[in-house]
């Protein structure tokens, strides 16, 4: 590694750009490594898992760039600036920076003063500095913004290159009008809806002027869920006009908006489709959905819905799906009486249309036919890496004995047919594994070292722990955990 040239090191460190711990360690190796890592770390210095309130050095570095006149003015205002013991910095840190995160910067600025007015002045000086020093701006998180950045000198040169914007609906609509004048090539737009009655015209205008919008995310953050008007329509009608470019759509509503069903079929070039909303398709909408082909879809997650809606999308995908992730237990609430038929159809749609599937959530009944179809799925889908499985009998309450039989049947299927790439299984609901059956399964396992997650506390018993630790020592089990169902469905968001 010490003999690799700077270009090769840069490519390696760039792959670690989200791993701050490793990058910070690399700084200490030698001068060449330090010179290569610093530009990567400082592209987005606000993104690392650091308690910024305690990190005075970031505040010190930014203050260092301020002119002496500005520092004197701030200190006369009563703002505490650090005494900097050096005449020059080892690197021109701000020249590498490509991002602004308003919340993080506000946190850093609080080191200088706890008074609102002082912080406002500091913000103004910092943003003015950034607009001068940053060569270009790629990422902007403008939640809690108090300054209209587009009015600062040289802002036009910095903002014209903006690729990613994160904002919320509490921001005055005039801010978005200002950005719309300069920012025409945003590729990723994330909107956090914190104000149910916000004026969204500015955001709609910003979307309208975009020429290369590829990723769009809308997330509601309400504590209460009152009945409100569909003010979001203006946003999604503008978004609909960008359907030919958009390849990622993520929508998290806390209440039903029927216009999503109406426009969903327009987004035919999506690679990622993630919707958390009560998408109840009527017969006509399902018919349109059946006619829509999502040729490029790779990741699918639609919550609070019947499995047949997901099956329809799978059937009309282009056989590129790699992740199908949803909360299987939630779907039981909407199709309790139809679970047998719909879950069988779902399994079949998977092995008929998803040869590349790697991550899969699945629910089915403990019938012979279901186990047979599930075995076919495992034989066809050779690239599977992670399974979340729920077995649920909607016709009767399962006895303990029957749950043990279901568990034995499931493990037999997994032993016979599981792809060798499978490295994680999450088990829930109407099945249990006896000690003997579990040990037989682990003894016959020939794939990757397994991570097994379940919610059943039976596996915390001493007899089970002894077997589990035995197969950990053999390298068969990587990890065995008992977690809540809620923990595991939240984990799905991480996989997205």
From TrEMBL:
Q: Matching Gene3D superfamilies, A to Z?
A: Ribonuclease Inhibitor
Q: Which domain of life is it from?
A: Eukaryota
**InterPro entries documented for this protein:** Leu-rich_rpt (IPR001611), LRR_dom_sf (IPR032675)
Protein name, per record: F-box domain-containing protein
Q: Which organism is it from?
A: Rhizophagus clarus
